[in-house]
Specification:
The chain is mainly beta and about 160 residues long. It has two helices and 13 strands.
Length: about 160
Amino acid sequence: MSRTRQLIEQLQLQPHPEGGWYREVFRSQGQVMPQDGRPARSALTSIYFLLEATQHSRWHRVISDEVWVYLEGAPLDLWTWDAVGGHLHSVALGPVSAASAPQHVITAGLWQATRPQAGASAAYTLTACMVGPGFDFTDFQMMAPGGSEALRLAADHPSLASLI
């Protein structure tokens, strides 16, 4: 059995709407009241998130801060895009090296997308993602193909349009 299949089975991962595989592993019993008018949320949530080499996480945003942590496999290219200012930022999430770091924080509300680095020796990337205030699907938005933000992103960064 491949390491990818082993992880999917052992960690009991399910398909994620943005692409890849996931399972929530922690949801804080403590509640917080976001200052932006949302109802109470768990203080913190955590998931495992796995992408196979041929998969990607589509452009999406979460209305809470999100911390990505590399666990194993291929390094991951992670992009954030500020639709208001048009600023694109990229990082490599992976083992500690001159080219990658094992952790990255995505500020609430930024668009984000990711995929395993091409040509990496591993056929997957396993990460953990923690969200605070805790994740709720009502705080999650996929970028609409053909929408104004998608059209602008595709025009400004055509190499990343395939992640919409």
